[in-house]
Amino acid sequence: MQEIIWAEKSSVGVAKLDEQHKILIGMINKLIRDPQAATRSETVSDVLGEMTDYALKHFAYEENLMVDSDYPRSKEHIKEHLAFRETTGKFCSATAIDVSGIPEMLLEHLSQWLTHHILEIDMAYKAFFQEQGVR
Ligand SMILES: [Fe+2]
User: Fold this and answer.
1) How far apart are the first and last CA of the chain?
2) Distance 73 CA to ligand 1 centre (A)
3) Angstrom distance (rounded) from CA 130 to CA 135
4) How far is the CA of 76 from the centre of ligand 1 (A)?
């Protein structure tokens, strides 16, 4: 499976958010590169838990920025974050039972969700944040 690539076109114009996106991509790429690594060092659910914890912290940070600056599409954006939390949670508990590595289907879900989310959903606030002077 291909790793996720962060390019300039992935920039949402807010340095802290770009930095968090890169960290999240790095965590998912680590799993894509070596899905069996999880079973060698820690349990699969620990590795996935670490990644989802970071994702949720990042969502909270992003949501605060949206709410504080009265971003008009924050409600629907927050819904997307909630949907990620639900679907990934379901995938993770199913995966916790299987300790043979991280299934391709889960990696595919993480990779596609994050790529779509950054390029479409997050990108929608870029111009707004720039107008508001959020850097
Ligand atoms: Fe987001």
Assistant:
1) 34
2) 11
3) 7
4) 10
Centre of ligand 1 from the C-alpha of residue 77, in Å: 6
Angstrom distances, CA of residue 11 to CA of 7, 42, 75, 106, 111? 7, 32, 22, 25, 17
Going from the Cα of 47 to the center of ligand 1, the distance in angstroms, rounded, reads: 22
What does 2-38 look like in DSSP terms, one character per residue? Answer: PPP---GGG--S-HHHHHHHHHHHHHHHHHHH-TTHH
Mean pLDDT, rounded, for 16-29: 96
What is the CATH superfamily name and number for domain 44-135? Hemerythrin-like (1.20.120.50)
| 3 C-alpha to ligand 1 centroid (Å) | 20
- Per-residue pLDDT tens digits for 70-99: 999 999 999 999 999 998 888 777 766 565
What is the Å distance from ligand 1's center to 40 Cα?
32
